[in-house]
Every structure is written in C-alpha cells, then in structure tokens.
Amino acid sequence: MTASPTPKTPISIYDTTLRDGSQGEGVSFSLQDKLNIAVRLAEIGIEFVEGGYPLSNEKDVAFFEQIRKFDMGKTKVCAFGMTRRRSMKAEDDPGMKALVAAQTPCCTLVGKTWDYHVTEVLRATLDENLDMIGESGAFLAKHSELIYDAEHFFDGYRANPEYAIKTLRAAAMGGAKWLVLCDTNGGSLPEQIAEITRAAREGLADFDVEFGIHCHNDSELAVANSLASVDAGATQVQGTINGIGERCGNVDLIAIIANLSLKKPDYEVLGGRSLTSLTELSRFVYETANLQWRNNQPFVGQSAFAHKGGMHVHAINKAASTYEHIDPALVGNERRILVSELSGRSNIEAIAGKHNLADDKELMNQILAEVVRLENQGYQFESATASFDLLIKRVSGKFKPHFETIKYRIVAGDRDVENNVAFAEAIIKLKVGDTMWFDAAEGHGPVNALDAGLRKALTGAYPQLSEISLIDYKVRVVDSASGTAASIRVNIESTDGKETWGTIGVSDNIIEASWKALVDSVEYKLHKEAAG
Amino acid sequence: MTASPTPKTPISIYDTTLRDGSQGEGVSFSLQDKLNIAVRLAEIGIEFVEGGYPLSNEKDVAFFEQIRKFDMGKTKVCAFGMTRRRSMKAEDDPGMKALVAAQTPCCTLVGKTWDYHVTEVLRATLDENLDMIGESGAFLAKHSELIYDAEHFFDGYRANPEYAIKTLRAAAMGGAKWLVLCDTNGGSLPEQIAEITRAAREGLADFDVEFGIHCHNDSELAVANSLASVDAGATQVQGTINGIGERCGNVDLIAIIANLSLKKPDYEVLGGRSLTSLTELSRFVYETANLQWRNNQPFVGQSAFAHKGGMHVHAINKAASTYEHIDPALVGNERRILVSELSGRSNIEAIAGKHNLADDKELMNQILAEVVRLENQGYQFESATASFDLLIKRVSGKFKPHFETIKYRIVAGDRDVENNVAFAEAIIKLKVGDTMWFDAAEGHGPVNALDAGLRKALTGAYPQLSEISLIDYKVRVVDSASGTAASIRVNIESTDGKETWGTIGVSDNIIEASWKALVDSVEYKLHKEAAG
C-alpha cells in the first residue's frame, strides 16, 4: 500500500486587467477590446474576470450588458464598486444600483481599511465606515457572490491593527465570501505580507471565509509578496496580465500562474490545465492594449529564453535543460539563439547550421566580421532573422538578387482638403533581368506608398508577391540624443499567410531605412520560393 | 543613559552592467560608453564596478587600460574571468594572464559548482575542477582582491550539496575574500535562496570570508531573492543598473539599493549616501545603452509616481504621502498627474490649476471632452505636456496662432551617389500676419528637413526660434496590427537650453504627424515668450 499524495491546494486566479490594468499609463481599451480579452481569459481557465467599474463610465456598463451573450464557461465575471456613500442607504446608492444592474455572478466591493483615509478622505467616522462596509456587503450578497477588497490593508494594519481587522469582520458579517488584502501602494516587503496575512486569518478565525491577495509592484516585489501571502494561507491572487496597471503596475498574473504551477508543488492553478497558451495570451493583451512587449518579461518575453553569450550557447547545445530554469515549451515560449558581436563563433555556427555552412571556418569568420560591421552601423539581427539569412547568402556568394533598384522617390505633404488625406506618393524604377519596370503608388504615408509601389512594380515579374502583407512596422531612433538627424532603425514583420519573417534597414533617413527593410522582405520571399 | 542604536550592517553593491548587462538583447556598449558608465557608478558610491572580460575582446582590454586614468574614488574596478583551463598551469593560462594584465584592484573569478556541468560541459573530473578553482584563485589572489562567483550555485547545491560546498572551500583556500552565490538560471524561489545561503555559510564557518548573491530575474523574483539572501547573511549584492542582462535580466540594482536603503533599517548601502541621483543614473544608462526606458520601473520609472485614476488623484491632493510608498524625491523622481479619459475632472483640474481655470466648470467639461476626442484618435498627453498646455489655451479661446500653415511638402528618395546621402528636401509656405514666407531646406530624412524648413521659414518673423533644438524624436505605430497603413503617433522633445517640452502629433501619415508635433513645439516656445 502506497501513501496517497497530499492533495494540492487550489489557488483561484482573479484577473483585473480590464479594470485596474486599464489605469496603467498609455492603456485604454475599447469595448470590443474588453470583450475579446475577457473571452481569452475564460478560455485559459481564469476563475474571476473583473470587467470594470459600472458606475464610472458607459463603456463598462455596455461591457456587462454584452458579456452576458458570451459563453464564459466556469469563469465568473465580476463588477467592481466602492462601498455606499456615507449618508445614504445601500439600496439607494447609485454605485450599489449600478453593481446590481450589471447582473454579474460576482461583485467586488472595495472599502477603506486605513483609519487615516476614513477620517481624512471619506470624512467619515471609524464606525460609519464599518457600517458602510457591512451594509453595502449585505445588500450585494443578496444578489451575487461577494468579494471584499480591503484597500490599503497592509498600511492600514501597520497604522491601526485593531481597526483593520474590524473592517474585515464587518465585510465577513455582511456576507463576503472572500476577503482580499490589498497592498494598494505596493510598498510592503514579503515578510510583512506574510505576517499580516497570518494575523488577518487569526482575526477572522471564527468566520468561514477565504483570503485573497492584491499586490502592486512599486518595490519590484509584487510576485514575491503574492507568493508569500499564498504561503501564509491566501487562496486567491488578484493581478493583471503582463502586470499592466497604475504606476509600476499590478502583480503580473503570468509570473504568478507559472510560478505556482511549475515551482510550487503544493498548489494547483487553473484547475491543473496546461500553460502552453500563456505566451500567446501575454502577447494578445499587449497588442490589444497597444503596448510594446516587454522583451525581458519572465516566462513569456521574447528574450526570456534567448541566449547570446558565446560560452553559454556552446554549452546549451550540449545540455539545454541545465541552462534554462524551465522548458520554454511549458509556457508556449521558445528558445532563441541570438546573433551578436559578443556571441562569437558558436552562436553564428548554431544559426548557420541550417545552411550547412558551419564547417567552413573561413566563411564563419567572414560572416562574423560582416555582423560586427553592420552592428556598428546600428543593425541588430536578433529579431530580423530573414535579413540575417540573406546576409549569410550574400557573404557566401549564394545571393542572387531578383531585381535591381534603379531609383525610388517619395513625395508627401499636407492634407488634400478635397479628399481629406495627407498625400504620399512613391515612384519606383526597378530592373528585373533586362526588363525595366517603372511604376507609382499612393499610400497612407510614405512607407505605405513605398511598400505598395515596390510590390506593384514587381508584380509583372513576380506575381506571387501579392501574397505578402506587412503585419508590423517599427521605427527606432538609434541615437536618440541627436533628435531627427539620428540614425533610424526600421524593423518590418511580413507574412505570406504561411510564415512570418522579420527584416531590418538602418539609415540616417527613415525613407531609405524603410526601403532596405522592404527590399529584404521581398528578396526573402523570392529566395524562399526559389529554394522550395 | 540611552541605549546606542544597533549598528547597521553595510551591504556592498557590485555592479556588472558593463559585463553581464551587456549580454542583454539589444545592448551593446562602445568603449566610451563603458568609461562614462563606470565613472557615474563611482560617483554614486558603488563599491565594485566590473568592467568586462578581458580575454573575450579587445574593447574590454582597452577599457581596463583607459579606466586607470580616471579618479574612481573608493570604487574598485574588477576584471572578470573563468578558472584556468583543465590541463594548464594557472600562470600559463591566457585567461589568467589577461586578468593580471588588466591591473585592477579586484578580480572576479567564476567557477563551476554543478557536478553535471563539470563533467559534461568542462569535461573535467570533479577533483580537477576543485584544483582549477583553488589554483586559479591562489594565482590571482597574489595580484588583487579576489571575488569568487560560484556559477549555478543553487542548482548545483540542489543536485549535489556536498560537492557544491567543496567548490566554495576550494575558492576560500585559494584566497577568495568574497564567495558569491549565483542563481545563474534565475529559477530559484526566495525560501530556497535563504536556506541555501545559510547552508553555504555553515559549510564555510571555519573561513574568514564574506558572502555575496548574484540573481537573475527569470521567475520575476530577483529582487526578493537577493533580499532573502541578505537577510540570510550575504553582504554583497551583484546586479546591473535597470536589471539589464541576458534573458530576463540580472537583478535591478536600482530596486536593491532603494529597498535596502529606504525599507530595511538594519542595513546600510553606498555608505549611507543620499539616493537622489538614482533616477538620473537609471535614465543615463538607458540612454547610453540605447534602450527604451521602462516606464513602470519601480522607484525610477516615469510612471512610478504617476496618478491617473480620478478617485486617487482627488485623494492625493489631500494626502500625498498616504498614496505613495515613498517620497519620490528620495530617489530623484517626481509625482505626475496624468491626463486621461479615465481620470475625470479632478485630474484635469489638478493640471489646469496653474492656468487659473479650475473654477470654471463649463470650461473643464469642454477640456475633458476634447481630451477624450483626441485620445480616441490615438493622442496621449501624458508626456506631451506642452501640447496639453496649447489644448487648454485653444479650448479656452486664449490660443493665438503665431503663424498659419499654407502648405508643406517633402521629397525624399534614394542615395545620391555623388554626395552619398539619401536626400530629403522640404518646401514650406507659411503666413505670419499678412506676410507670406516661403522657404526650403534639406535634411537627413524628411522629418529633419521639415524641422529645418519650418524654423528657417519663421526665422525672419521670430529670430528666437534659432534657440530651439530637438533632443528626442519618437515614433509609435498606434495600431500595429495593420502594418504601414496604421496610425502613427510622433512625440518630440524640444529644448531651448532653459526648459525642455514634449509635443505630440497623430496621423495615418508620419509626415503629417511629425508636422503637427513640430508646429506645437514652435507655438509652445512662442506662447511661452509672449506670456513671460
């Protein structure tokens, strides 16, 4: 007879990307964005999705109306609101009414813990605040599952522990099923979080409630603080995807889910599901929020499993798992070997391997020298792998250009009043074999016109170029200290529906940098087909 | 008689931005960059500055030659290298020779802890590796202070604790003054770091050595892990400014210094100096590394003390300190009140206050409506405060344009072979009062030409515009999912030597977006002078 394993403690994940996350600088979601994100969160099995603050704006009201049409599986949508106003019955309070009108299976009520905030911000007495918490909770608990978020709990507890516990007891008496301790200012340390979580549980020992933790990252400790609270007995973690949120952000649920699932064998998250869609979810939220990816983000960043140092890359080829804290496939990410002047021969060889060139030492030296020369101009081949493929072909004499640029020119200027567009036109002259092609195209802006003109001029010779479309276009000022005269690095991501590829161009002129990246994109597609 | 306070334990800060940091994706430092950063690190009082790996490249050799000419105060420059090769005497090993040739007051030697890596990567026996550590250390300790970095210490200890301790003992017998435990793969949890740090100290109790900690952020726990090791007895923390480094980066020394100094009263860092230059140091390193600032970076990010939510801003005006975990001035940062559709009236009022408009409710409504309208087009006024100033003036009828745009046009194209420039020309027609001004300018790229042309055309009417220069130019594709036809947001930072200001322009055409931001920059300057 074998001993049965200790059962894992389930930890609920509560996502507030759509409410607290939208407080982040530069973040604003449309209604459709919010619906799309909510559905994705349900798909990966997140238990609670906070959709918004229905009292605060019409967009959130519309969200709660529309989300009811979607199948959210076991995921509970939550509406967020504050305790009732000081001198008003709960049933008359506009915030309470808005919460009930949202018709969600769950409501999240936030209330004040910190005595100073009660008297100075709310202008209420300490007892009035307890009534506001208890009565608001009792009113809402008749309609839905109730989560109570104790704002400033850790600061409030340090200031007046007795009163802080009283606020939690008022919420529990009101019918809250969950008491969530918020480190609203993000200033606490893990040992403080653990100690105060334990104190809160002791103070509520006579109630049948569960505890949650809500951390902000102001001390760069949000993940550690949340895990410390879980180890002290919390069974719900509130946060946002990618840690977006006000100031330094909320805790990143990506890191919470991955750490709890992959590193803490005592706990279970997302019902034990696979995490292979975490990377995709992270990037989907960045794209929807129009935020740049955080390349070095733990677990899901593009660089999270990228290896650059020559010594490491050499060893990784021998024993990958001992150079990576987890298998990147577990979270849907992948290993990348980067090209760089620091990387030395073993990196170049790892990439050149697929070209069957790795045994040619002389060629490897030439490639390395070319990489260094271009890096000094501002090139970075790390995400421009198609341009790097072409570089290897060029250096090894295997590059056969499919066309020759004779000239290109763009004209652009102010808004054409009649058509209400700021005009941009490109004129392109190319040579394919002995044939000259001359064409022109209009576009939204000069780069769009160049792209259209280049492919239009080549369509006669290479009709398959109509399959290409640009999916991303990035501009980086390489030396931003010297203003508009600085070097410009353009990265383009293209797709033909089957594959996506990245190319790069660098120049002191954005038009020329864009042209180089566009030409590489087209050449990559044509070489790919010639090889296939 | 009062009890004297417990003396604080000094914690040494060891910076490896110039070596481990330069392994980060997208990071490459020139020799001059490295010298500039090293001098800054010495200025703020960092004890150890690792300059590079002299065996690996010529740039690092040159760094050690040149840094000797600078006054580094009490800061010790360190050269980094690996243990000697397997079958070679330390004094004959090229790496050892390169370290001695660097003539630094301190050398950092890295060696293998993990038995698997010894046999599979080094292809040495376990005893050979101990000899390599001990003999390399003994050789170097004759020349300089010796720090021993135990690579993969935590993974190695978990695999074979006895052998891991033996490697540290070999280094201590070799004369290492510091034994630094490295979580090379970044996969450990704080409780593991604390426990293994204590085990290492116990295993070396008979040696007079100090311990250090070197963490990577792969689990988003690098700060917590480093602090846990300090609480377990480590007295040196290795990391990089802004946490730059391979994969997810090294631990961010900014957060380490701020947390130890401001939140952990038992410890002293940087000899107790003020931290008011931390924010400037962080930004200096980003600029030098040509990396984008991490806006939500704890302590020093632009958003770290930025308040957007209307409820918060209302309360912050009452009691700032209870909404911020530290006073931003302590780390040289500042509070910012953001303009946003979410922020509501109290944010707009806080900013409009300086215009003495806050009492005009009707006007406040109009400003808010205009902000929402423009935000829907892709504007963000958060860092474009000069454009927001002009917006308030426009809505309140106080904006008097200093000129009228009649037309602008740019022509740009391929490289002029004769002069080796990709040409760009701007033609500008403006009206000032009743006078028409028509001018043209060349530039490096279309935006540079537009900027030159605009100011050239206005110089006759407003000679003071010659004081302006652009210090930064940023392009953001607002909806990157649709390629080059997406909306383009241009942010420009301008200066007249006395003040710097940010302006913004949005359009589907980069030329038009740039024009709008340039026009706002010039109008802001002219309005400022008219008011002054």
Descriptive notes:
Two copies of one chain form a homodimer. With 532 residues, chain A is α/β, with parallel strands linked by helices. Chain A folds into three domains: 265 residues, Alpha-Beta Barrel (TIM Barrel); 82 residues, no CATH class; 59 residues, 2-Layer Sandwich (Double Stranded RNA Binding Domain). Chain A is 38% helix and 21% strand. Chain A contains 17 helices and 17 strands. Chain A has an eight-stranded parallel beta barrel with strand order 1-2-3-4-5-6-7-8, surrounded by ten helices. The first copy, chain A, has a three-stranded antiparallel β-sheet with strand order 12-13-14. Chain A has a three-stranded antiparallel β-sheet with strand order 15-16-17. In chain A, α12 links the parallel β10 and β11. In chain A, α8 packs parallel to α9, α13 crosses α14 and α15 crosses α17. The longest helix of chain A has 22 residues. Chain A is elongated. Chain A starts with 8 loop residues before the first strand and ends with a helix. About 1% of the residues of chain A have low confidence. At the A-B interface, α4, α9, α10, β10 and α12 of A face α4, α9, α10, β10 and α12 of B. β12 of chain A pairs antiparallel with β12 of chain B, so a sheet runs across the interface.
